[in-house]
Design brief:
This protein is an alpha+beta fold. Helix content is about 50%, strand content about 15%. It has 11 helices and 9 strands.
Length: about 375
């Protein structure tokens, strides 16, 4: 089914992304990222030079100024994932959809001028630190504190499962600056690599996204100056997170649809060339039926996802609609990729093949950005008329 989301400018940009993929996303590159457990800085800088990151950074700070037109970001996601480089798509997503927007939307003029130019070029790598060892989807359960002192804050606590946590230069960190768990008890603060008492913990070993680092972070009496409090005022962190979470969940939905599309394309290529009992696997009725199922699923995924992208561009994507998109697309992604692995037979279980890596990568999509159980709770509460 034809998609009608993109215009001529978007398709021209797609060619730029494809050229980047051809040059920088080779099999050797993917293998290097997996071996090192992270995307190298040279690749991030190359992405900045090519205009693939920093898309939402205002032009005055060196970016493309495309905050509301998410279609450009979606194209980057699509093409990188179709190239079998989910880890690279993840690194770009953390930069552009999790770290940068908090500074663009809520940062002071000084914070924007200091950090956004480097984030647009890939010289400064950002991350978002919310999850803690004892608090995941329940953001009000975080215990990392920022106590006010003269000239700034003293931060103590720990974060875990932080994507880009090992390589990040700048961490947008969710902290408690007040008592209790009311929304105004929380703030966002920028913690910089190299601050005394801040340590990047061990790199966590995951089943998927081997080439994108995930780490623990610890803060022991870290002094953070007042200038690093996002927005320059306490008590707005919870609201700021709530405002940006639809974008994060939109990103996951686009990644899920892209991975399902990639899985379908890889599987079609495989079953048309692989033979069994003297016939192509594609010629068996069971294969054709399964392909028909997943091809239809992928079309519906794109129709739903494209509508969400359009709503975001219009400023109309609600938290509930983003939650629906996130849990529905990631559930379908898992079903599609599971079928694709089955149609690959034994080769689908070998990580040398992109379908195996995509299958492993997909598992976390139902967890991060808020578990799918929490997504259903968000939608269910709205339907039941509960706040």
């Amino acid at each position: 089914m034809d998609r009608v989301l993109y215009g001529e400018d978007h398709e021209a940009f797609r060619e730029v992304v494809k050229a980047f993929v051809k040059r920088y996303v080779t099999t050797a590159d993917r293998e290097r990222w997996d071996e090192e457990g992270e995307v190298d800085r040279a690749t991030m800088r190359a992405a900045g030079d090519s205009g693939l990151i920093g898309l939402s950074v205002p032009e005055e700070f060196g970016g493309a100024g495309m905050m509301q037109d998410y279609r450009y970001r979606a194209i980057v996601n699509e093409e990188i994932i179709l190239a079998g480089a989910g880890s690279l798509a993840g690194a770009f997503g953390i930069q552009d959809d999790l770290a940068v927007p908090y500074i663009v939307h809520f940062g002071t003029d000084e914070q924007k001028a200091k950090w956004l130019p480097g984030m647009a070029t890939g010289e400064v790598i950002g991350a978002l630190a919310m999850t803690e060892p004892g608090a995941g989807s329940d953001l009000r359960g975080v215990s990392t504190t920022a106590k006010k002192v003269e000239g700034g804050y003293i931060v103590n606590g720990a974060k875990t499962f932080i994507s880009s946590g090992k390589t990040a230069d700048l961490i947008v960190t969710f902290v408690k600056t007040g008592e209790g768990n009311r929304p105004d008890a929380f703030s966002l603060i920028l913690i910089e690599n190299g601050m005394e008492g801040f340590e990047h913990g061990k790199k966590l070993h995951k089943m998927g996204f081997q080439g994108h680092d995930t780490a623990e972070l610890s803060f022991s009496d870290v002094f953070v100056p007042d200038a690093n409090l996002i927005g320059g005022a306490e008590g707005h962190g919870f609201v700021q997170l709530m405002k940006n979470l639809p974008l994060e969940r939109l990103t996951i939905g686009v990644a899920a649809a892209s991975a399902a599309q990639a899985g379908l394309e890889w599987t079609l290529e495989y079953v048309k060339t692989r033979e069994a009992f003297g016939e192509r696997i594609a010629d068996f009725q069971n294969t054709r039926f399964r392909l028909a199922d997943i091809a239809t699923t992928v079309d519906v995924m794109w129709a739903y996802t494209d509508r969400a992208i359009a709503l975001y561009g219009e400023g109309k994507l609600t938290p509930e609609e983003a939650a629906k998109l996130k849990f529905w697309t990631t559930e379908r992604e898992w079903e599609v990729l599971d079928t694709c692995v089955q149609l690959h037979g034994g080769y689908g279980y070998i990580t040398e093949y992109p379908i195996a890596r995509a299958f492993l990568d997909a598992r976390v999509h139902r967890i991060y950005g808020g578990t799918n159980e929490i997504m259903r709770e968000i939608v269910g509460r709205q339907l039941a008329g509960r706040k």
